[in-house]
Amino acid sequence: MLSNKNIREKLSKNSLASISRILVLEEVDSTSSEVSRKLKEEPGSVVLCVADKQTAGRGRAGRLWHSPLSGNIYLSLSWTYTELEKGFNGLSLAIGVAIKKTLETFGYLDLKLKWPNDVIVRGSKLGGVLVEIIGDINSSFSVIIGVGINVNMSREEGSVIDRSWVDLASISEDSPPSRNDLIVAIVDELIDLLSSFSKRGFAFWRDSWLENDAYLGENVQVISGENKILGVSRGVDVDGALVLESSDGLLHINVGDVSLREHP
Ligand code: BTN
Q1: 117 Cα nearest atom in ligand 1
Q2: HSE value, Cβ hemisphere, 13 Å, CA-based, for 122
Q3: How far apart are CA 177 and CA 212, in angstroms?
Q4: pLDDT of residue 257
Q5: Is residue 260's pLDDT more than 70?
Q6: Whole-model pTM?
Q7: For 34-88, what is each residue's pLDDT tens digit?
Q8: 151 lines ligand 1 (CB under 6 A)
């Protein structure tokens, strides 16, 4: 059972000092939408929302994020920036690194990253990150970080998902840890990251991202709308753009409506 009390008791002092509201809901349209609504009431505050179920969960590129009541994690957190020394590029990739690192502390060692910010296990998706911006990126603005992690989802519940997926329950013989514990560890890691990102920029996380890149050196196709670009994945640059060696030379592809598929 998700528990506000349990989460609050276990969060680090550092996280608690930043967070002004923790919402633990049985059902919501989208935890990211809920955070955005609450943020309007108290601009600048850090709002955390987790839910057992989402009725309109959002994925990247306008996709739906299937969010049944099954024991998965649906989590969103806001963060407000007033000054960004190193810019904001690559934040969502750094968050992917943070989630992978957190899951490793629970013994899940077989995880990789797929650009821009999927956490995958042997090619199947375990979780994803959605970063949305509220406000003007040139002055003060907030980001809403949405994290979905499949913890426990039966094949039947996940049958509507049109790509290969896994959950924590199926990648280890041990039962998954409690969602409260996972959420606490993820939020502590995210708050550390968000509070230092403006000074460090993505350059600080780039090597870790590259070490965990599932497709480095692989033939891939990048799909953006109707366009497909074939090439060899050469990792990411200091801004988090995908570096693709194509027949037109090295292309730097920014985070956007792009998905990456293996290509023979
Ligand atoms: C992706 O497409 O990979 C990103 C998925 C992000 C899903 C999470 S679940 C919690 C939060 N609320 C949403 O509506 N979406 C994000």
Answers
A1: 3
A2: 8
A3: 23
A4: 47
A5: no
A6: 0.94
A7: 999 999 888 788 999 999 999 999 998 889 999 999 899 999 999 998 876 667 7
A8: no
pLDDT of 249 strictly over 60: yes
User: Helix H segments across 122-178?
Assistant: 168-171
Q: Cβ(59) to ligand 1 under 6 A?
A: yes
Residue whose token pair is 């959420």: 183
Residue 166 is which amino acid?
V
CA of 27 to the centre of ligand 1 (A): 15
Cα 98 to the center of its chain, rounded Å: 9
Question: Which distant-in-sequence residues (6+ apart) come within 8 Å of 106 by Cβ?
Answer: 177, 181, 182, 185
Distance 148 CA to ligand 1 centre (A): 5
Q: How does residue 165 score in pLDDT terms, banded at 50, 70 and 90?
A: very high
Residue 103 and residue 93: Cα distance in Å, rounded? 16
* Dihedral (Cα; 237, 58, 43, 73), 10-degree rounding: -90
245: CA distance to ligand 1 center in Å?
30
